[in-house]
Amino acid sequence: MLRNPHMPRHPRPRGPHGGTSEPQSILMPVDVYTLAQAKAWIKEHGYEVRGLGRGEASAASAASAASAAYYRFRQFDPDHRHDYRTIPFGKSGILAVIEVPKRR
Length: 104
Known about the structure:
Layout: E1 22-29, H1 35-44, H2 64-67, E2 70-74, E3 82-88, E4 95-101
Antiparallel strand pairs: 1-2, 1-4, 3-4
């Protein structure tokens, strides 16, 4: 099936400054949450549990040692049309990798 390139892949919520952003991955610290607790939090907050691992998504990269301290819950695959930033997501050590439009 061919996609219309002008239609977004995902609905983009409005950001606090009028822009758009969307969580591409949620990172849960392994020293705070067990795997069962992390999965329950993800489901409870309306996110999907898929392709999860302790840094498995980036195991081939040099940054995998840092990401191994988190369970990574990828919500969708990244693409080259957007930038990504990691931000705090609450006060319990959870991080979110958010997708934002590239600046022109």
